[in-house]
Design a protein that fits this description.
11 strands, 10 helices, elongated, D-Maltodextrin-Binding Protein, domain 2, alpha/beta, two-stranded antiparallel ribbon, Arc Repressor Mutant, subunit A, seven-stranded mixed sheet
Length: 294
Amino acid sequence: MKWLNYHHLLYFRTIATEGSLARASQKLNVGQPALSAQLKRLEESLGEQLFERRNRKLILTEQGELALRYANRINDMGEEFIESLQNKMFSEQASIQIGALDSVPKQILLKLVQAARRFGAGKVSIFEGSGDELFRLLDTHHLDIVITNYRRSVQSQRGFKARSLGKLPVGVYGTKAFLPLKKNFPTSLNEQPFILSTHHSQLRHDFNHFLQTNNIQIRVVAESQDTSLKKLLGADGIGLFPLAEVVMKPLLINEERLEHIGRLKNVFDEYWLIEGERLMENPVAKKLMDRFRI
């Protein structure tokens, strides 16, 4: 039976990612002759050449590219193994790291944290950011679960488990000055000022489609992914904004009440929970995936 030397695999992965023995030697703090000898031993044990030497550069062979994919997976599993033991994931007071797309309202994040606490989480860490950043952290096991309301980010991911939390009706909100727009809604929205999410938002795409379908032209006066900021701008009378009705109750901000102007027909804000593939699943993340609802 052949044994795989973990250090040999680490040296190979570092050489492949750094692109040269010299840079790998500096990063690993291992002499170049010793590093070259370890690489040779790995190639001999596998019976394959992993690099070609071209113009003093190391180029991965076809077998080398395959070996690198496995080396990356083994490295990720090793990090997951250490993290799982250090976090005591199987104790009664498990911790959970949650990633949230920056367009997810704070009210929904609050409900998610409350559910995590009910399911036994001793500590809940929240990381907000862009979709690409969050999925990269999920893939490298720095996050246990991600909540998002951007459909395209869900559809583009492979190797993750996703579950829809439901579709929420969307309303249009503004100050009392916009109350006359209730009459003849949604035609009354024509030429009105709006505060919208950026084009990276699924709600922005769906709202734009609604406007086109109903032949409505609006004036975009501000854009932000931050739901709280949109509420503040709306309460200041800058413009109207669409938002899921369940997270937008009549609200008093800056001494002005935000009013519900009307509901957008066939426009919904859908949310998903996404979990990465792990050998040792976080028990709190599993319960959230199975039971959490909006």
